Structures are given as C-alpha cells and as structure tokens.
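Quick question, first post here. What does this chain look like in 3D?
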Amino acid sequence: MNEIELYLFTGPEAGEKEEAIGNIRSAAIKKNGSVDDYRYYASETRIQDVVAQLQNVSLFSPALFVVYRNAELLKGKGDVEFLTQWAKGGAKSSPSTLILVSDENSVDKKIDSLVPSSHKKIFWEMFDSRKEQWVQGFFRKNGFSVTQDAVARILDMVENNTEVLKSECSRFFYCFDRGYTIREEDVDRILSHDREENAFTLFESMADSTKSPNQRLEVALEILQKIRMSRESNGVMLIAGLSYCFRQLRSWHLLHSENKNPTDIQLKSAGFSGKKNQERYRNASKIWSPGSVTAIIALLASTDMSIRECGAALEDTYLFTMVYSIVIKNGRFRSEYERF
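> Answer (accepted):
Ran it through. Tokens below.
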C-alpha cells in the first residue's frame, strides 16, 4: 500500500493556513518529484468523488495532492464512511495527501477523529502584539522600514488576517523605493484614498448604522459595481469574504450574549482587535440580530451555490439581489415579485 497523509486545518487565520498548506505541498513535491494538484469545495464537490479520485492511479504524476475546503459541511454518515474507508484502509494507488480546510474552529467529531493529532491545527487570529511584529517583519523582509504609528494605522484599517495584510501592505512596494520608511500619512494616502473596494469594505458600507437602509443599499450597490469592474471581480471569492464577516458578527453576538460588557482582552481573544474593527462589528450588531445573521449566512451559501451552478451569465443578478436582501430584507429571500 502506498502512503497516505490526511490533515485538518481549521480557524479564521487564512494567511498562515495557506503557508502551512504550501509547506506540505513543497514537501510532497520534494519527496515524490511532482504532484497532481487539486482544489475542491465541499459545497460543490462531494467527498465521495474526491475519495474516488484519491483511490485512482494518477496518469501524469507519481502523487496526488488535494485541498478540500468548507470541511465543516462534512456531516453525513456517507461522508464519514467514505473518508474513513480511505483514511484507514490505505491507498492502493498513488501516494496521496488530503488536506481538509475550514474557516470554522471545528468540524464533525467523527471527521476530526480520523486525523492524527500531529496533523491537526487551529489557525487562530493573531493578537495585536503578534500582528505588529508581523507587519514590521514583512516590511523589513522586503527592504522597507515602518514607523510604529504607521503600523498601528495599518492594523486599524486592515482585517485581522495575514492574507489580507500581505495584500494591502504589498501596495506600498509599488509606490516607494526600497529603503523608504513608511509613515502614518503614507498609510492614509495609500490605503484610504487609493484603496480598492473588496468584500470587507462592502460589509462595512452595509453595516453603517448611521445611515438608513436605503442609503446603505445605495452605497453598497455602488461599491459592488466597482468590485465587479475591478480585477477582484470573482463572485465566489466576494461571497467568501462576506461569509467571513458575518461569521465574525455571529461570534460578536455570542460573546455579548455571554458577557454584556466584555473586556478588551476578551474581545481580542475572540478576534476583535483594533478599535476600528470593534466599532465595525458594534455597528453591525445594531443592524442585524443573531437570527438575521443566521439567515444572511444561509443566503450567502445559497447564492454561492447558485453562481457555481449557473456560471457567469447570471452572476451579477445573483450578487445584486443578494446585497438587496441583506440590507433591506435582513437576509430573507426576496420575493420574485419585488422590484428594486
């Protein structure tokens, strides 16, 4: 029997998670010479189909490497049985690696029990002190220095996620020569004035409790239009970003239901570092109740599946209808007879 490797990576910290996946992939290539590389989502590809692929002999490479996302959706008896058969029965074909990935902190206990403890890791969001070190190290590694005020400003403006931090901080490298010291005014100019719209700015516009629903809808649709005209126009990725935001809002509601006045330490431990980030979710909690958040997360998942099934032809229609339903209907599905 050929060797198989099964991993489980959970938690919201996408940057470090992707780095860990990349390291495992590099090790697999070094060991086998090359790998057939595949990426799947549980919302669109059954685990039975993935297992069937893992059990087949690869025609092009000596090993298979599969990343399977949204692993929290693996709950059915059939899912567990197929995965158990592969994990415990051994591989009769090519050496293979399967990495189960979820943005949630846990998956079904039966799935979890299949993975060796040494192959499991929860990627928690970073604390402020660690984020500061990460930002300083990222600039230093790329030949720049950055003031403490600039670091604080970046962390106040950018989501608590190293993947997003890396993307936003990299923008400075196109604006300044190596050796330059990034200052707070540079951050305001680059990230505020020239900032591209994305899922997080869209969420922030929808969560602006100072505006009426119609005003929020108008701004949100303008931002969505800009996103659709930019290089970040992938609808599925946009929904993934919004899903992350609303899962965070669900965590905010849960934290405040358990403790009406959580301390800064409790907020940071739950992933709400930075005053701006806390203010964003405080505003959002005034607009969407826990029940509305649950409905919105279901709406996002439904829209994701509809886009994957129907393709690009109706993508704009689904996305604009989705934003309308979130802002005006609080996640309830829009009636086919409604106009907006």
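Residues 335-340 have pLDDT under 50 and may be disordered.
The longest strand covers residues 4-10.
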